[in-house]
Design a protein that fits this description.
It is built from 16 helices and 16 strands. It is an alpha/beta fold and about 475 residues long. It starts with 6 loop residues before the first helix and ends in a 9-residue tail after the last helix.
Length: about 475
């Protein structure tokens, strides 16, 4: 079988190659060599043409030609008239192991940035803030008052520390979703809750209804479980109920995954009426719903979770987390589910890690009753940063378009007549890592959008816009986009 790597696929594999040192062609050749040596590119695979790769990377064709020449000189690729350039053999003889990539996934580069950690690049893969000041005092109080009886315990709580489960139940009750502690499972952040639900509900070729756009990390979790994604669009009230109904009628999915409360990346807050309609649809069709409510808003007035609108026969799992309101390093989340589903999830959780760290849970139990206060402070700071960023963008990029978000952590920006992946390659040369919109669409659409977090300090946002401005100017000067406007 003739395996061909498109320019877009190859670029995803190569990752952050442009920030290395040396001539551009040498950096590109070194990145391809690493991909061959690691087994990401296999013997016999055909690489994109010089013209296609040059256009995608927004570099000269001579740069790509020089990189391919260097690889040919090392015997790593060979070229034949009519059959293109192919991988000749791996540089090392050791067979590759599983590397954590998801076939067809869209979040590889985002997860790689988390693995690599921060550097000179301003990475827009991050939409996170530092810890709230209250964290330090809460930790000191925990050590002074709670540590003796916590350490007297065996320390294994697969369902979660009872005090934290009770606090989560009280918190959800305050949001309009009556909850008992036996409906709560504590997890290592919202990400683990989503992963556990994927294990429980999905099998190979299961169908999952997701929002389009959405968070690519979740897409990859579902794809890793063998699922097929069915995207539904959003409007000003959230995920479109007519498209959800059509998806449910076309093929009964195994799961529906939604972000109703400050959707990532658009920041949309789903209306109460839309939540109620979706809950009725899910119950009528017998489809479980996984709702991720981990994001915070820019103002008050959030409707109750979708689960509050479900009847007795609805299986709706509600996910929450302290990552956005308190600190991403406090890896505590939860999932609220009907008692039977919570029991099944608890078995998956026990198999994964026997329970989340007890001290982290005890700290979360101290902070959770103050969550509304902490969120309000976060929201006030976020509004200031958002105002600062949008003022800079309007001045520097008058042709860029966005809708003011209800909440969340980022702007969802529409670029004028350009594939955002091309802009991302140029921006990386100017020290900014962009997440193109195509990565946030289950079908690779939204290719002229970018996600721009406003979680950075004001001075970083100013520098960010300046770097983006230099990248945009370079893109305008390139042969690929001669008519690009500001």
């Amino acid at each position: 079988m003739d395996r061909y790597r498109s320019a877009e696929e190859l670029v995803e594999i190569l990752g952050d190659w442009v920030t290395a040192s040396g001539p551009l062609y040498a950096r590109l050749a070194a990145a391809v060599e690493r991909a061959i040596d690691s087994g990401d590119l296999e013997t016999g695979e055909r690489l994109p043409s010089e013209r296609d790769l040059a256009r995608t990377l927004v570099v000269s064709r001579a740069t790509v030609a020089a990189a391919y020449d260097g690889l040919r000189g090392r015997g790593l690729v060979d070229s034949r008239q009519g059959s293109g350039t192919r991988v000749a053999h791996r540089a090392s003889g050791h067979p590759p192991g599983a590397d954590g990539r998801v076939p067809g996934g869209r979040a590889t580069s985002i997860f790689q940035r988390f693995v690599d950690g921060p550097g000179e690049v301003i990475s827009l893969a991050y939409a996170i803030e530092g810890p709230v000041p209250d964290l330090r005092q809460a930790l000191l109080d925990l050590v002074r008052e709670d540590l003796p009886h916590l350490t007297a315990d065996a320390g294994y709580h697969p369902r979660g520390l009872p005090a934290l489960r009770a606090a989560v139940a009280a918190h959800l009750g305050g949001l309009g979703l009556p909850t008992s502690p036996d409906q709560v499972l504590v997890t290592a952040g919202a990400s683990q809750a989503i992963g556990l639900a994927a294990q429980m509900y999905l099998r190979r070729r299961s169908a999952v209804v997701v929002e389009s756009p959405g968070w690519p990390g979740c897409f990859d979790v579902f794809r890793a479980a063998g699922a097929e994604l069915r995207g539904v669009r959003l409007d000003e009230e959230g995920a479109r109920a007519d498209e959800i109904e059509r998806a449910l009628n076309d093929r009964r999915p195994s799961l529906m995954f939604l972000m109703p409360t400050y959707h990532n990346p658009t920041g949309t807050l789903m209306s109460a009426a839309r939540r109620a309609r979706i809950a009725r649809l899910a119950e009528r069709h017998g489809v479980p719903v996984l709702e991720d409510n981990a994001y915070t808003g820019l103002a008050g007035g959030t409707p109750p979770p979708i689960a509050a609108f479900g009847g007795a026969g609805a299986e709706i799992l509600t996910v929450g987390s302290l990552a956005k309101a308190v600190w991403g390093g406090l890896r505590i989340g939860w999932v609220r589910a009907p008692a039977g589903a919570a029991e099944r999830l608890a078995r998956h959780k026990a198999l994964a890690d026997l329970g989340s760290p007890v001290l982290d849970q005890a700290l979360a139990a101290r902070l959770l009753p103050r969550l509304h206060e902490l969120e309000a402070r976060r929201s006030a700071a976020a509004r200031q940063r958002l105002d600062h960023l949008t003022g800079l963008l309007r001045e520097r990029f008058p042709a860029w378009r966005w809708t003011a978000p209800d909440g969340g952590a980022a702007l969802w920006i529409e670029l004028p007549r350009i594939d955002a992946r091309s802009f991302a390659h140029v921006a990386l040369r100017h020290g900014v890592e962009i997440v193109p919109g195509a990565a946030m669409d289950p079908d690779g659409g939204h290719d002229h959008y970018i996600r721009l977090p406003f979680t950075f300090p004001a001075e970083t946002l100013t520098e960010l816009v300046d770097r983006l401005g230099r990248a945009w100017a370079e893109l305008r000067r390139s042969a690929s986009y001669p008519d690009l406007v500001l």
